[in-house]
Amino acid sequence: MAERGRSRCPECGSAALVEDAHYAQQQLVCAACGCVLAEGLLTTTYTEEQHLREVAYSQSTGQKEELSRCMQRGIRRVQDLCKVLQLPSVFEETAVSYFQRALQHPAFHLVSLEKKELLGGCCVFVTCRQHSWPLTMGTICSLLYAKQELFASVYLSVQKELGISVPALSLADLVKTHLSSFRLFQRAEDVPAPFAEDKERMVARTLQVVELASETWLVTGRHPVPIVTAAAFLSWQSLRPAARLACTLARFCKVAGTDLPPPAHLRLKELHEILLRMASQLAWLRVFGLDKRTVVKHLGDLLQHRLLLLKNAFCLEGAEEQRVEARGEGSAGPPPAAAGAGQEEEGCPSGGKHKCDSSRRPLLPPCLIKPRKRLRTAAPSESDAALTGDEPISDSEIEQYLRGPQEIRAFRKAKAWQ
Q1: Which residues of the chain have pLDDT under 50?
Q2: Within 10 A of 245 (CB to CB), how many other CB atoms are there?
Q3: pTM for the full predicted model
Q4: Cβ atoms within 10 A of the Cβ of 208, count?
Q5: DSSP, residue by residue, 3-42
Q6: Is 311 helix (H, G, I), strand (E, B) or coil?
Q7: CA–CA distance from 281 to each of 296, 310, 346, 386, 406 (Å)?
Q8: What percent of the chain has pLDDT over 70?
Q9: In the chain, what is the greatest distance between 2 CA atoms, to the nearest angstrom?
């Protein structure tokens, strides 16, 4: 240890500066306060050791000690997950950056170890969504062996705490991603020959069925995977109906190597009902007496003319309003019940070329067609039971009962359906 008196310590002002060898590294240290004024150079580093170049300690292997073990383990998990998913290097860098931010955020300091292990998967999922990379939450959860409910809660927390904007995954991308995992396209030995199918044909047909489901309110407010599964099953059956009509949805999912979501049976039933109503509008299909199994044979024709068939199979709102107004306001002419059998009804969605079917209903969401049973309300009190409806209305409440033309039409329409 040699003293040097040519300068002073910037911390304490002492001139007692010494050169100290710390692990073969020369350092200039203040003997009074221990401040390190300068550090030497190393030649054994993880980046430059093959060239035997001298670098500072801050650029050597010592920089890895700045990261905690939890951080290093999490970064490795993120990198391994990106390699399994075969993501570009840009995605990996972004996901690692998000993970470092999340782990250093105070909101994630006291969370459980299980949630910390899911942080990496959430950061990879966020990165893929931001780059429009088709990846589902179920795929991430299967790779991490995580529960989807827990993963979803951590994912929402990452979005909120880090202020990250994540665009929604389009339904078309979800269809392509979900079907890409099916074993039906891999020509495996354990897949029977009648079950194998061309991927491009099935994806194209499934996209058309999903578009039909979206146009008939079967997608809004629901989890998309059961609908995609049911649509894929119908598409697969329609491509080779002779050999596949006897196959059930459960067996199809088992052979395809995908999970069967519980609501998929209900979505399949709703799609069958829509297809049967559409098939009833085609003259050459009425004679066959189609049911939910045989209607799949004609799925291609129904999808080709779906816009026209939907208009003919379901009453539109404008046509219904016209009929309600004609019944409520029209004083001239015979009432609807006395109208001639051969008389065409105005306002028909098909242009008034045929008589509207009385069983035709508006195209409504399933939650309105089959609403859930409401709980029984409490019995009315004596004061409420004494109300007759003939009580005088105060001036402050009279404005609440004034209705415009649009409200009058809506009220008459609702009253006519009762």
Answers
A1: 1-5, 23-24, 41-46, 48-49, 57-58, 62-65, 316-358
A2: 13
A3: 0.54
A4: 17
A5: EE-SS--TTT----EEEEEETTEEEEEETTT--EEEE-EE
A6: helix
A7: 15, 9, 18, 52, 32
A8: 71
A9: 119
